[in-house]
Fold this sequence. Notes:
This protein has 293 residues and is of the alpha/beta class. The chain has 2 domains: 5-99, no CATH class; 121-292, Uracil-DNA Glycosylase, subunit E. The protein has 14 helices and 6 strands. It has a 6-stranded mixed β-sheet with strand order 1-3-2-4-6-5, sandwiched between helices. The protein is globular. The two termini are 76 Å apart.
Amino acid sequence: MALHESVLEEFGLAPLWVRRGMSAAQESAVDSGVEQGAGALANQTARRAPPPAQEQAQGRVQAPTDTRQPTSQPSPQSRATEPPAFDAPPDDDFAWFDDQPAHAPVEARREAPEPSSIQTLDWDALSEQVAACERCRLCEKRTNTVFGVGDRNADWMLIGEAPGENEDRLGEPFVGQAGKLLDNMLRSLTLARDSNVYIANVIKCRPPGNRNPEPDEVARCEPYLQRQVALVKPKLIVALGRFAAQSLLKTDASISSLRGRVHEYEGVPVIVTYHPAYLLRSLPDKAKAWADL
């Protein structure tokens, strides 16, 4: 397909093409029978151009002023049947378009390390990575990330949903009234967050308005939780609440159907029970939570 000449000049490609044909005046002169000896006449005119008056006296026709070497011209009939008067370069001359970057600039991509690299971090590096994380939109509204708290070598690991308002403000999971209830429940089992349990959340940043996290937010944050589980090496995981249980077990089943059975996450046994915040609103289910523990 022929490209417009202005487009070729804009991309600096005009020298790659050979223009064919002459101006209308040249074609008229050729059609008048000047084909024979045109090359010799042009060379003679270039070496010794007589004054116009002398040319008229001698009955000569002045050759058109052109710095290009004239070539023999095809007849109108032959021009009608030949390909377009335009020599395109080989197809691979346009391969330079493939060199354009196909990805966004580096400054526009502020992604955290891939999950495979997260799984090599130690506690300190993992904590720093979570504190600076911008893997999802939740980073825009948070006050603090909520990494986790407790014994990093504990046999029990408790996993909740996501930070609430108090957790976002203090940077610690399960504080406020729900946290006090959880501490009382653990104390009855001779457990405590600062000695022999580790507490974390599926999501490390507070969702606006305490809404449920979106699936993509869970997916981007889960590698941090997976690494925490690998570092703690617990003997038992207690999923606190419906959302935590469904996220860990990759299911839409109700919490009532998940309770009373042993599940598995990252090779660790999982027990499902109610979230302490729910128990504050539904006192009759406290007995069921005690039974689960």
